[in-house]
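step: validate -> pass
step: tokenize input -> pass
step: predict -> running
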Amino acid sequence: MSFVFSSSRGRQESFDQSMEGSGLQGGEDPPGSQVYEVMVVQNTTVPHNYPFADVALLQTFKPLIIPCYVLVLLVGVFGNYLLIYVICRSRKMHNVTNFFIGNLAFSDMLMCVTCVPFTLAYAFNPHGWTFGRFMCYLVFLIQPVTVYVSVFTLTAIAVDRYYATVHPLKKRISMAACSYVLSGIWLLSCVLVAPAVAHTYHVEFRDEGLTICEEFWLGQETQRLVYAYSTLLLTYILPLSAVCVSYLCISVKLRNCVAPGHRTRDQAEAQRARKRKIFRLVSLVVAAFGVCWLPIHVFNILRDIDIRLINKRHFLLIQLLCHLCAMSSSCCNPFLYAWLHDRFRAELRKMFTCHRRIGIPANHCAMASVVL
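step: predict -> pass
step: emit ->
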């Protein structure tokens, strides 16, 4: 099964056992080769505890899992495409914040396209990976890159909104600086993925008719753990902390924001209602990011501590459900960052109905507009 963060330790143990059975030890290179690009294991019996043995269990959950993945794929692709369409077509939407949101939508859409179909095919096919060696390396490169880009872009959006709300008089970053930030996000993501790609192997068990495409750190368990926990820190703990702190500061700023001049009772109630909406939206943003990615990180940690903590027979099922939860974040983001935004909805209606947009009432507290 496609796994977007780190190698499957259970498969690595089985792979090492198969290597020993074929006369090759973990950490050794085949004659004339410095790396395993394709390892063909012949006359080797796949160990009875090989994780693909629980594919039969997955088949019983197929009627439930596949519709869920298809729903994530459709909503993720269509929702993010509409978001990109609105930003590209409307010049009014051409600003730094919306370009960050557009980058998030593009990475989420690419994540859906690369993660969902290949993950399903790999998980439910008893022959394992059937897309060839080139696609093995390509897919396992694109998948984590899109995940990292999404996470880092979410962090950039939170920081951008923090400065726009808490420090409204400070100069916002220019469009040129925004392009540099986005380029840096993609470059950093590619750099972080490089070690995993370097340890990705396309392995064929010819006698069993089984092919796997996995990340293996043969004889480098310490390095693998360092990489895994560094990735956890950079792609979950630090971004989640930054998002929480940024939106907490925004919430405090908005709570203390008082509109100048005399307000009528209706105006005061309208402002309180708008603040409540903002607080709910901020809470949803933080909760969606934390909850969607928590299961897969907990799974990784338990697997790294002791793989026996995860029931061997249910290993792939649990892994697949955690992966599904992580992929669902690509469906949440379009709604949280755009469709709950009055301006995005108005622009979308304008494009599809060709009617003039109805003006949105001015905000009594101008700073609140950057949050939605």
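step: describe -> Confidence is low (pLDDT under 50) at residues 1-53, 355-372.
step: cleanup -> pass
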